[in-house]
Design goal:
Strand 1 and strand 2 form a beta hairpin. The model is unreliable at about 1-10, about 15-30 and about 300-320 (pLDDT under 50). Strands 1, 2, 3, 4, 8 and 11 form a six-stranded mixed sheet that branches. A five-stranded mixed sheet has the order 7-13-12-9-10. It folds into two domains: about 10-125, Helix Hairpins; about 130-290, Cupredoxins -  blue copper proteins (Immunoglobulin-like, Sandwich), CATH 2.60.40.420. Helix 1 (about 10-30) packs antiparallel against helix 2 (about 50-80) and helix 2 packs antiparallel against helix 3 (about 95-125). The chain is of the alpha+beta class and about 325 residues long. The protein is elongated, with a radius of gyration of 27 Å. It contains five helices and 13 strands. The structure holds copper (II) ion (CU).
């Protein structure tokens, strides 16, 4: 094949147009998925822009390769077709060409792998976390246990988080209810809202330890920039540091049974002071353990029960007092 049909100026224009389109789509990306959104979200954590950048680089490479390969193919098909008198070349091997088309993809792959590995290493490095939340996947709901905050163990703050009742009633066969009417503040929350969201502070490095109680699930909130498998018997870890207060939604991302599509995730990020108040309220509500305590029990000394977190058997990061 001869290379007479490929005009560099035309390609330059095409690549520029493709990159321009990418930038446009990138510009409208918001923290939560929007109807018709084409590109992934920039996210709302300190790390998520890195995932966004990696995605755009990889996508840009794919676009350029696609244009080159399909461009060459279509030019060959139309310009060098038999009806225009094209005569096939007789040679079948070209060592130089083969070295070039092996080397270039290898270099591209090495560059992508280098970038991706750097990204993975940073998001898996949970050292210096100021808070730990244990996430457990169940068929078909999530459990959140607050393990520690600013070096202090948190006791008895944990809850199940499942599909909100409105969505659940609406989704029933022949419910006669309109999914469009399931709204919170004018935003359609059908199948993406929960009864109790995970509440976290902004501006805090939060370590998530993620596991499951039955089958494999995957905890995925796009705005945080990563998803992590929740596997029974294995504790995976990742961290986030949310930059802006808001409500961030996600889904279970591992096919886990018949209601896999009905176990959404809602993360509510609050300013630190509000979060600390919320946490104190939760701890206070959990402390007097119902009226079941024996009536004759003496006033509980503050050291009666050694703090022991039954949540998960992983080391809790200490220090970094705020
Ligand atoms: Cu699941």
């Amino acid at each position: 094949m001869t290379s007479g049909g490929i005009r560099p100026s035309g390609f330059k224009r095409a690549v520029t147009a493709a990159l321009f389109a990418l930038t446009m789509f990138g510009g409208v990306a918001l923290a939560n998925p929007q109807p018709g959104q084409l590109n992934m979200t920039r996210g709302a954590s300190t790390w998520s822009p890195e995932a966004y950048f990696l995605n755009n680089v990889a996508f840009g490479v794919c676009v350029v390769i696609g244009i080159l390969v399909f461009g060459a193919m279509f030019i060959a098909m139309f310009r060098f077709r038999k009806s225009r008198g094209a005569v096939a070349e007789k040679w079948s091997h070209n060592t130089t060409l083969e070295i070039v088309w092996t080397t270039i993809p290898v270099i591209i792959l090495i560059v992508l792998a280098y970038l991706a590995t750097g990204g993975l290493r940073t998001f898996a490095d949970t050292t210096g976390s100021e808070m730990t939340v244990k996430v457990t996947g169940y068929q078909w709901k999530w459990r959140y246990d607050y393990v520690d905050y600013k070096g202090k163990a948190i006791e008895k703050v944990g809850f199940m988080s499942k599909l909100d009742r409105e969505s659940d009633e609406t989704r029933q066969l022949d419910s006669g209810l309109d999914p469009k009417s399931v709204q919170v503040d004018g935003y359609n929350t059908y199948l993406i809202n929960v009864d109790k969201p995970l509440v976290v502070p902004v501006g805090t490095k939060i370590r998530f330890v993620i596991t499951a109680g039955d089958v494999i699930h995957s905890w995925w909130v796009p705005a945080l920039g990563w998803k992590m498998d929740a596997i029974p018997g294995i504790v995976n870890a990742a961290w986030t540091n949310i930059t802006e207060p808001g409500v961030y939604r996600g889904q279970c991302a591992e096919l886990c049974g018949q209601d896999h599509g009905f176990m959404p995730i809602v993360v509510k990020a609050l300013p630190k002071a509000e979060f600390e108040k919320w946490l104190a309220d939760q701890e206070a509500a959990a402390t007097p353990p119902a009226p079941a305590a024996p009536a004759s029990a003496p006033a509980p000394a503050s050291t009666a029960a050694a703090p022991k977190t039954a949540a998960v058997d992983v080391p809790v990061s200490q220090g970094h007092q705020g």
